[in-house]
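[step 3/7] fold_predict: job queued, chain A
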Amino acid sequence: MVLAVGALLMVVGAATAMFLKGVAPWLFSVGAVCFVSMQMLQSYEGSNFTIRRLKRIMTISDLLLLFTGVFMFIDHDNPMGFDQITYVSYIKGNWVVLLLIAAVLQLYTTFRLGSELEKEKKA
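[step 4/7] structure written:
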């Protein structure tokens, strides 16, 4: 349940980032913490190298989701006091790139883990 609520909050936070700049980073970050914490609780005790590799990739994706929340806050407030040209050139909107990479990795590992666990169960 927490995993689904976290995923929903991340989607709402990312979707409202354009309109509700003050609330969106909070929604996304709370959702990311819920989602990532539940994924970290799921463990694999087997010896299948492929499944272990996929779990490591999923962990990297989880970290990227957390960094996306941090970048959303930086994108909104510019707390580091960069000048306008540096801020727009290097920081503004880069949280979207992190989110895209994390989403692709999550999608890949979710489908691959399902098929690998199914193979392991049959064997």
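[step 5/7] annotate
The two ends are 31 Å apart (CA to CA).
Residues 49-77 form the longest helix (29 residues).
exit 0
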